[in-house]
Amino acid sequence: MQNTTSTxxxxxxxxxxxxxxxxxxxxxxxxxVWNGAxxxxxxxxxxxxxxxxxxxxxxxxxxxxxxxxxxxxNTGLPASAPQALEELWDQLPVWSGAKELLVALKPHxxxxxxxxxxxxxxxxxxxRLGIDWDVVxxxxxxxxxxxxxxxxxxxxxxxGVEAKDAAFVAGSGYDLFGTAKMGLRTYWHNRVGLALPAxxxxxxxxxxxxxxxxxxxxxxxxxxAR
Length: 226
Hints:
Number of strands: 7
Low-confidence stretches: 1-12
Mean pLDDT: 92
């Protein structure tokens, strides 16, 4: 695994045909919004961890908002916390470098979102980036939550691109289970320093920022051919 935040920009670009993105952790700072809705970082992290446990445990899609409410109840938060989360949804902060990366990629690659949430909230969150996405796939549409392979495959089917010709930018280490099964080479934007989940494969690149992503994608097909 390469672990870097600064890679020289390739002079001879070999972009993938498509780049798929996790949305709520790779491009958007959903951590801040969850913490704000919960009332503190500690409560927000606990609530989010319980939500992730429920999500990755259920596999087949159950209503996102229902899981968020159940996780809040399981961790002792009032019903006002999930309501506050939805009210703050249109204020999801964009990670530094995210818009610049998308603008740089748009002339060269198809761009897609694969996100674990409802169609309604996924579309609202994707609009925060100000990009004309080629595809936005939510777990509601796919019928399954990541890291089940089906959400990734649905995005590839909509794009008309094979996994070998696409890349994935993850925000959670759990995505690595799914992208490995799909054969999607993966850049893990590990902004908040999450531990690699037990048994998860390594990302091709792991970095606390998106700074190295463009160079990695510019040399994508050349590196893959070696």
